[in-house]
Design brief:
The chain is an alpha/beta fold. It has a single domain, classed as Ribonuclease Z/Hydroxyacylglutathione hydrolase-like (Metallo-beta-lactamase, Chain A). The protein contains nine helices and 15 strands.
Length: 312
């Protein structure tokens, strides 16, 4: 029996994760920061190496450069059947105002938001079916696809459960008031709006894989109050920072393996905290950006193969 393949790519400080079903269907969750270099991978480079010209599903969890930018390269050069995106299109304030009066952070946020609108445009131009994630906003409507004994469901946010979207609220306020100070706040709040997805298997219900985006502790607490989050593998949120990767969240998810999307040279001061979590939980901790002796780079069950790091 062919197995589902999951690839956690090494894209530096960023997220890019691929799911490949036995049928050949491919889902990409986030695209990294768009950097092409010898030090990190890129989902487009992975597709080229694999001889793949088409994505069945493209998913963006939230708007930050390290999740969004690589998707633009995909949308320019590859075809995409369906895309799940966080927000409907919005009309930004005049760029001239931002350039003239905005701080460096305001200009950065404006650039991110403009890149998101560009992604929508590129996908629309090539005929991609764009689905707003609010369509998966209840337990009954959470499943994106179910195929080959595997299913992918959106666990967060659910509109039907009243999950807050503080970044989106701030964005709408900033646009309405043309307030650059308010616009700056989008950057720090965007992680709170992050989507979470779970890949589960009919034959092995205890071997689910949780894609945490960059959701922070408050969001995980809401999730833990409404469902069992225990997972075989957890793609750790927010690159292992303690606002998302801590004892409380670990207790709710109780993973066997933790995959942290980060380069080894970016995590030195976080390692003591990670080691403490590992010693208490017993979970393994794998970095997408480092191969260490004794640390698994491939995880396998009866139904899935997971590769961590640079993908062949």
């Amino acid at each position: 029996m062919k197995k589902v393949q999951v690839q956690f790519l090494h894209v530096g400080w960023g997220d890019a994760h691929l799911i490949r079903l036995p049928s050949g269907s491919i889902t990409l969750i986030d695209g990294g920061d768009g950097t092409f270099s010898a030090d990190q991978d890129h989902p487009l480079s992975w597709m080229v190496r694999q001889g793949i010209s088409h994505l069945d599903w493209l998913i963006l969890t939230h708007i930050h450069e390290d999740h969004l930018n690589g998707l633009l390269d995909i949308a320019i050069t590859k075809t995409v059947s369906k895309a799940v995106l966080p927000y409907r299109p919005f009309k930004l304030m005049p760029e001239a105002k931002v350039r003239q009066d905005g701080s460096e952070l305001a200009r950065r946020v404006y650039g991110m938001l403009n890149a998101y609108l560009t992604l929508i445009h590129l996908l629309t131009e090539q005929g991609t079916e764009i689905i707003w994630r609010s369509d998966y906003g209840t337990e009954e409507q959470a499943v994106l696809w179910s195929e080959d004994g595997a299913s992918l469901a959106q666990l967060y946010p659910w509109d039907g459960a009243g999950d807050p979207l503080p970044a989106y609220e701030i964005l709408l306020q900033a646009i309405e008031e043309e307030d650059l100070g308010v616009l700056e706040r989008f950057f720090e709040l965007s992680n709170d709006d992050s989507s979470v997805y779970r890949l589960s298997f009919e034959r092995e219900p205890d071997k689910s894989i949780l894609f945490g985006g960059d959701l922070l502790e408050a969001g995980w607490e809401r999730l833990a109050q409404r469902m069992d989050l225990q997972s075989w593998v957890w793609k750790v949120s927010h690159h292992g920072l303690p606002d998302a990767f801590n004892a409380r969240v670990m207790e709710w998810i109780n993973p066997i393996h933790c995959v942290i999307p980060i380069s080894a040279d970016r995590c030195g001061n976080m390692r003591p905290g990670w080691e403490s979590l590992r010693s208490v939980s017993g979970a393994s901790i794998c970095l997408t950006g480092q191969a260490e002796d004794g640390i698994p780079r491939r995880l396998e069950s009866e139904t899935a193969i997971i590769d961590i790091g640079y993908g062949d």
